[in-house]
Amino acid sequence: LSAPGGISLVVPQPNINATVAQNILLSVEYSCQGVATVEWKHVSSWGTTSIAEWRSGNYVNISTVYKDRVTAFENGSMELRNVGMRDAGYYFVTVTEEHGTNAYGTITVNVYEIIYEDLHFVAVLFAFLAAVSAILICFMWLCNKSLHVFQKKTTQKLTASTTEEIELETIEC
């Protein structure tokens, strides 16, 4: 974009897709006749936040909210480290020449979460079902064992009582 007074501002990547905890470069390049001031603002559903402002070669003023996460570059670009969901939105850059002429640029940033919760839920569910099935298998084995023991005792009692009946019948005869 070229503004009157000789300021030009180029935004080579107006849309940026990032994942949580990634670093992104809000890349711009400007040129102007004199000394320029670069200002970055973030606009999202949570409101408008001033991020940084600097004058070429003189000073850099970074908001306390972004202090540890922003690096400002001489060409007007800005690196934002460790992005989160709240960093999604529109980033507006304003380049103001010392004579008061401005150039504006916008970058849209989309931040996506890597969903590990679904995988975590499936893994926990699978482990729970495996544990329950192991317990049920052990319970079935115990039931089967006790059934065999019960059948053996019953068979022995029947055999013993049948033997006694036969002996009693033999004695009576």
UniProtKB/TrEMBL annotation:
SMART domains: IG (SM00409). Pfam families: V-set. The chain crosses the membrane at residues 119-143. GO terms for cellular component: axon; dendrite; plasma membrane. GO terms for biological process: filopodium assembly; positive regulation of excitatory synapse assembly. Gene3D superfamilies: Immunoglobulins (2.60.40.10). Residues 13-112 form the Immunoglobulin domain. It is found in: Membrane. Its main location: membrane. The keyword Oxidoreductase does not apply. The keyword ATP-binding does not apply. Keywords: Glycoprotein, Membrane, Signal, Transmembrane, Transmembrane helix. This is VSTM5 protein.
